[in-house]
Amino acid sequence: MKIRFRSIKAIEEFLDIVNRFSAEIDIKSKRTTVDGKSMMGIFSLDLSNPVEVTAIGNESDQVYEAISKYAA
């Protein structure tokens, strides 16, 4: 799922949401992939463009539903 962060507050809210789930979250920007539950990891990416989020695990569908408001 492609998402876009429009503010630091949006990143904080995103982290609050994804950390409720046991699913592994990967975020990819160009050739770099980081842990989607890591604020430092997210801030290391180029956030001027949409990023690709991948949820892995039993709760992946619930994760995508919960973060759908960030869809690019």
**Mean of the pLDDT scores?**
97
Q: What is the C-alpha radius of gyration, as a whole number of Å?
A: 11 Å
Count of folded domains: 1
Secondary-structure-based class equals alpha+beta
Strand order of the largest sheet: 1-4-2-3
Termini separation: 8 Å
Q: Return the string of H and E elements.
A: EHEEHEH
InterPro entries: HPr-like, HPr-like_sf
Pfam families: PTS-HPr
Protein name: HPr family phosphocarrier protein
Domain HPr: 1-72
Question: What do these coordinates show?
Answer:
InterPro entries: HPr-like, HPr-like_sf. This is HPr family phosphocarrier protein. Residues 1-72 form the HPr domain. It contains 3 helices and 4 strands; from the N terminus they run E-H-E-E-H-E-H. The chain starts with a strand and ends in a 6-residue tail after the last helix. It has a 4-stranded antiparallel β-sheet with strand order 1-4-2-3. It is of the alpha+beta class and 72 residues long. The mean pLDDT is 97. The chain has a single domain, classed as Histidine-containing Protein, Chain: A (2-Layer Sandwich).
Sum this structure up briefly.
It comes from Eubacterium ventriosum. The protein is an alpha+beta fold and 72 residues long. The protein has helices spanning 8-18, 39-43, 60-66; strands spanning 2-3, 24-29, 32-35, 51-56.
